[in-house]
Amino acid sequence: MNRFIVKAAMLLTVFIGVNIVLLFGLSENGSDYLYEYNHKLQLLDTVGQPRIIFMGGSSAAFDNDSRTIRDSLGCNVINFGLHAGIGMRIPLEDGLRSIRKGDVVVVQIEYANFFNGGNGEPEALPAFMTATKWREWNRLNANQWMKLIQGIPRNNISNLVHLARRFKTGPNVAFVYTKDGFNEFGDEVSHLNYPSQKYLPTGKKNTKAINTDFIEWLGHILAQYEERGSHVIMMPPACIVSCFNESYNDNVKEALETIHYPYVIEPSYMALDDDYMFNTGYHLNREGVRKNTANLIRVLRDCVYGAAIGHINTYSPESGD
Amino acid sequence: MLFNSFEFIVFLPIVFLFYWFVFRDRRWQNMLVVVASYVFYGWWDWRFLLLIALTSLCSYGSGILLEHYEDKRQRQQAVSAANIVLNLGILGIFKYYNFFVENLDTLFGMMGWHMDWVTVNVILPVGISFYTFQALSYTIDVYQKKLPATHDMVEFFAYISFFPQLVAGPIERATNLLPQFQKKRTFDYDKAVDGCRQMLWGFFKKMVIADNCAAHVNQIWANYQDETGFVLLIGAVFFTLQIYCDFSGYSDIAIGCARLFGFDLMRNFNFPYFSRSIPEFWRRWHISLTTWFRDYIYFPMGGSRCKKWRVIRNVYIVWAVSGLWHGANWTFVCWGLYHGTLLAAYNLLGISTKYKNVVAYGHRLPDFRESLQMLLTFFLAVIGWIIFRAETITDALGYLTTLFSMSLFDMSGSVESLKGLDLRETLPALIILFLCEWIQRDKQHAMQFSATGVVVHHAWIRYALYFALAMITVSMAGTQSEFIYFQF
Question: How far apart are CA B168 and CA B170, in angstroms?
């Protein structure tokens, strides 16, 4: 018995040890997509007012043309969307620190967050923590730690694969997720140069129950945004129709109404034809981005001007970048 | 609680340590098994516990009564019949009531009669079919005097609720599992190590192959009307592999886990996709259920020792019931009848009892004839799984019609569609699966090492293998999902 326990413990220790060594010992992949988060944090601190901040996952990053929005609405734009896999808790908490009076915060939460608690996914959390130098690791909740630990071996394998690919020569012909794909506003723009990839939706409707803990937390943090003088606009994320049919259910709308942050438009309004898809249900191609940006401008113009935040149209280039 | 969950990773070592270090007495160990099993099961929904407790209590009571009326056969018949009716009644209400009501309503509607039926809105308790059959096995075995009734309520409750195999089998026989609860268990190092290896292989099959295949299967099935026949064939093959890895993966984890506690559960899978005929396939697939039906339904009806037409009838009855056991849907019944037809055909050809040995035993590769036989059997199984996977008969027919259309040969359209599936992780994993299972096909499971093999004599190879498999399993795990057979 003791022999069994000792061997099992040793094996477990070696497994954990090797993974820790790989996690901290492998040279960092500095061009990883998630490194863009540091740039986005910088934008929050440095971009002048008046400004609109888009909060969300990769849907916001891939689907918005911030330059056009800036030119149309006459205010600075920060695209703080990055990856649904890091959840919504971390970006919203970080955003709160840099928020200023008069900011317009457009919150576009990918629907999965409402069901999984917005804590992120094992696929992205370890790489995200590495990219942000384990900054504020102590704020992670138990669920996030669990997902983080679960994702470490996967992260190590993908780092090893990346290391091996360094020896591969020749240009990339396919789209690659990298931090170099973002523009100065925080939009992912490199994908606009690639043709759409085939994507098969699963056709399975999400029927899970809403995570009430997340909803409660969301109401609480958005209230803090407003206490600091910003104006929160709850907007559905852009996606293609197939993805919308799978991911959205009416419970989301009801839940947001209970915390008094209802969607400013019907979620179906933001769902575009499948032809506008780039490589996932939430990522749009060039035409899709154009169409989605036009939709956003239309809605924001109504919300922003209609909500009497009149100072936003006093934008002048001097107060900008 | 799912095997592939964080909760189980914490739960298992705690129960293991308490079992061997704190509760060393057999009775206390049995008590711990009951408590741990109820925690494990109640993790889904505590209300399920009431049902399993009721099933256990009634079956336990029936055993006592059967013994009490030892010389009164009629009373014994009444007791066993009452317990069987009660257990099947519970199963019927929770699993089949709405199905029958809806079908009767349609039937009467066609005859012009409209009746007000009451449907029940209840959740299907996880694994109800498994533990109900286990309870029935006890009552029937006691009635048939294959087993004395137990008077120890704790050991009986432990037998019904034993957590490794509670929700998806193997469906244990009272004659095999109950006596193991009645004798003292001692820790067996080799058995525990072998159990861990089997669990590791089970996790690999479930988390890497089944869960990743599931994503492709769902995508193809969701759009099957728009896909080519070739893509549908790939989708059907993926489901064939998914259901095997999902279910046999669960069985491997269950059997391995039980071995950690000193129990030997019956084998449930014996590399079924290396079968050379459908009867051989069914001797290797879900063995615990197939033998249950054989012993408690097929043999009592006369089995194969009667006139040919009765044998065929018996086969059809057993397979219709087997289909229905899998779920309250006509697709399952059709799937059962499809296999019943194949088995009847093999029976008529007189080759249903052939191929009891391991394929290509002593050889590295099968010969041409064996390869063709395996390919045909695999293909017939794939067709069956299409019916099984479909949500309606119309879907099954639609899928099969497109599959066998000219688009089966449309390679350019198929390649374009298949680009939408990310197969970079799934295909290498499938190669590992097939290689390991083929090499180990004469063993109990793919990670059972031969005493004379190189792996046993070189510890570093063994540990490197464990490490690599664990890394692959954790890092390539698809989205955490329930096991398919839980719903049955």
Answer: 7
Is residue A59 within 8 Å of A243, Cβ to Cβ? no
A155, A249 Cβ separation under 8 angstroms: no
The rounded distance, in Å, linking the Cα atoms of B372 and B375 is 5
Q: Which strand (E) or helix (H) includes residue A105? A: strand A104-108
Closest CA to B205 of B358, B442, B434: B434
Q: Do B470 and A15 touch (CB under 8 A)?
A: yes
Q: Indicate which residue of B286, B326, B339, B445 is catalytic.
A: B326
User: Is it the case that residue B327 has pLDDT exceeding 80?
Assistant: yes
Q: Given A18, A198, A202, which is nearest B222 (Cβ)? A: A202
Residues 234-293 of A with CB under 8 A from B: none
Closest of A279, A206, A188, A218 to residue A244, by C-alpha: A206
Supply angle C-alpha A31, A36, A39, rounded to 5: 125
B107 Cβ contact list (under 8 Å, min separation 6): none
Does A153 contact chain B (CB < 8 Å)?
yes
Nearest-Cα residue of chain B relative to residue A281: B420
H-state helical runs in B390-458: 393-403, 411-418, 426-439, 454-457
* Closest to B274 (Cα-Cα) out of B376, B183, B347: B376
Q: How many CA atoms lie within 13 A of A63 on its CB side?
A: 36
pTM of the model: 0.84
Choose among B193, B273, B190, B252: nearest CA to B445: B252
Torsion of CA B466, B470, B476, B480, to 10 degrees: 140
Q: Which of B189, B222, B477 sits opposite A204 (nearest CB)?
A: B222
Token pair in block for residue A50: 């008046």
Task: Look at B320 and B459; give whichever has higher pLDDT.
Answer: B320
Which is nearest to B260 in space by CA: B175, B202, B173, B174? Answer: B202
Instruction: Indicate if B326 belongs to the active site.
Output: yes
pLDDT digits 0-9 by tens, A273-310: 999 999 889 999 999 999 999 999 988 888 766 654 44
Strands A51-56 and A231-234: unpaired
Q: How far apart are alpha carbons B76 and B82 in whole angstroms?
A: 10
Domain map (residue ranges) of chain B: 6-186, 190-276+355-487
Phi, psi (deg, nearest 5) at residue B71: -100, 5
Instruction: Tell me how far apart the alpha carbons of residues B388 and A99 are, in angstroms, rounded to a whole number.
Output: 55
Q: How confident is the model at residue A169 (pLDDT cuts 50, 70, 90)?
A: low
Instruction: Summarize pLDDT for A69-108 with one digit per residue, the tens.
Output: 999 998 999 999 999 999 999 999 999 999 999 999 999 9
For residue range A200-259, what is the model confidence (pLDDT) as tens digits? Answer: 777 677 778 899 999 999 999 999 999 999 999 999 999 999 889 888 888 899 999 999
What pLDDT is stored for residue A321 in this prediction?
Answer: 35
Q: How far apart are CA A60 and CA A185, in angstroms?
A: 12
All domains in chain A, ordered by first residue: 28-319 (3.40.50)
| Coil, helix or strand at residue B261 | coil
**Which range is least confidently modeled, B154-158, B224-228, B295-299?**
B224-228
Tokens 């690791």 sit at which residue? A137
